[in-house]
Amino acid sequence: MVLLGIVTGTLDQMVRGQTVFRTALRDWLVIALVVIGSFVWVYQCGPDLSADLLRSNLYTAYQFVHGRLAEDIAPVNYNPLVFVPFYAMVMANWPSLVIAGVLTLFHSLNVVFAYFLARKVLNRGGEERWESVYLATALVGLCPMYLSLVGTAFGDVASSVFVMLGVLLALDAGQPSHWWCNRGLLAGLAVGVAAGLRTNDLIYGPALVLMVLALPLRERLKAFCWVVLGGAGGWLLVHGYWSWHYWSWRLSAEPVGGGAPEHWFWRFLAAFDAQAPSTVSSTPYGAGSRHQLL
Description:
mainly alpha, 13 helices, about 65% helix, flat
């Protein structure tokens, strides 16, 4: 981010007075630095060989795609859809570096959306606080959770992209627009998708509602309705099928959470098998591998 400040400061002097061009150029520069910086970090960390990948993430998608929910001893009790893209790339025999690059490109949207969020919140009232915007962006990019999971098969940094997008859109939830491009509707849809991919992200639904309730009174009720409608639609779109499918097999007494005894028995058995899938790490890269992230 120091490099970002130096480069953007030079650009300010070069194109002073051309506000629109300077802002667009600054945005693209930030996006490029975030993506390249994230990819360099992932390259140095090496391929994902964490316990979660070897024990559940890859097989969870296989189990879902091949319909083994009624056959396995301990089928998963969370939405496997978030792992399907990774599984598809592995089964297509893509090199691990390419798989990591695709995942990194998507995961880096967390930092990109954080930049636009900070720019919208901090650069208001005719004042430009670019130093604060860069600092906020750097804090997100240097977050331990982001650095640990970027470019891996974990669903945390994948679903959080939709959360960040939802918060960004919610800032304009009170603006009038057509229903199909209403910011409140799209914000709720994004957070609903995130909650559908990972049930843990359900907590951001009430938080998003509280955001729109801070709008002026005339806009508050309308924005609230759009957010709730979008959130319900997003969750049903991503998690509806899985909820019905999971419930229909009666695999657990707790469809949303865990609790099945055989689940823990499976964890115990998995501890005795340390063999990693060869297709995942067939093309090593960087200085090492991430065996256990958290």
